[in-house]
Every structure is written in C-alpha cells, then in structure tokens.
Amino acid sequence: MISSVRLKPLNWHPYIAPVELSEATSEQLEAMKVTPSAKKVSEYVRTLVHDPESYLARTILFNAIMYVEGGLARPDRELGALGASIVNGCKFCAVVHARRHAELTKSDGVVTALYLDKPEKLGPRDAAIYSFACRLSAAPSEATADDIAALRSVGMDDAEIIDLIHAISIFGWANRLMHVLGHAESA
Fold first, then answer.
1. What are the residue boundaries of the structural domains of the chain, listed by start?
2. pLDDT one-digit tens code per residue, 1-48
3. How many helices, marked H, and strands, marked E, lie in the chain?
4. At the topology level of CATH, where does 74-172 sit?
5. Start-to-end CA span in the chain (Å)
C-alpha cells in the first residue's frame, strides 16, 4: 500500500498582463462567457483573450474535448490530460487534472501512484491510458498499432480511443501555451 499524496493547488502567473474585466472590449467580454471549465474567468483566460477570436475557437474545441457528454468517461480524459501534462512538464495542469481525477473517482490512488512514480501500481485500464498518454506526448509519431491494441485490450472502443487521443493532444497544446505565457508556483 502506498501512502496518499495531497496536491495543493498552484498559482499561475502570466508574463503578459491579463485583460482587466473593467477594460475588456465587448468582443473580449463575449468570448470570456465560454470559459474552459464554464466556472470562472481566470488570469489564464484573461491572458488568452487578448485575441478573442482565437480564444473563442480554442475554448470551444477544449470544451468539446474535455467536457462533452458521452464517449470516454471524464476520469479517463482527466488521466490522459494528467499523463500529457506530466510528460510536458506542466506542473499547473498536472495538479489541476490530478485533483479533478481524484475528485471524479473519489479516490486518490491513481494520482498517488503517479506522483510517487509507481505506475506499476495502476490497474490495467489506468495503466494503459497513462502509458499511451506518456507515449503520445513524448513522441506522437512513434505511436503504433500495438499502442491502440493495448487500449482495446482493456475494453476501450474506437470512439473512446479517439476521445483519449483528443484529450492528450489538446494538452500538448494547452501545456505549451501555459509555459510560454506564464509560470506556476505554490499557492
């Protein structure tokens, strides 16, 4: 048995001054109505909304991948995002998605195993998802039919595999945006 890891939220600090809500254009305010989590307007959102058109397109795509009903279960999407964020070195996203996974599954066992670098402690499905997320994030062009077969062997169908690929891939993009636009540190 491994002991539980408690992950504290991190703060993200932008390098470019975020748009102040009181100074936002009507186009920026309208774009910010579609936030990634549909919950709040963060500094990250306010940084991205300097370009409201691209922010809106990015956020609609992000929401369709991470928050859509049906298809791959949300915890599995979060595990894909977590694996990608770990490989990409995005501590902020890794903590956010580790916490979401633990919340959704009502267990911190998977997160604890990953943060203690003990992926061998994962169950077969979680291990296959995490392994694929790591492989796809490290070198997407090296993914093979064997990688897909490993996902099928734990019960994933083609639609779920496509959803997982989308979740992992959007975090290749999201992690890079966060790194270039700011940095994370302990709260």
1. 11-66, 74-172
2. 445 567 888 899 999 999 999 999 999 999 998 876 556 788 999 999
3. 9, 2
4. AhpD-like (1.20.1290)
5. 29
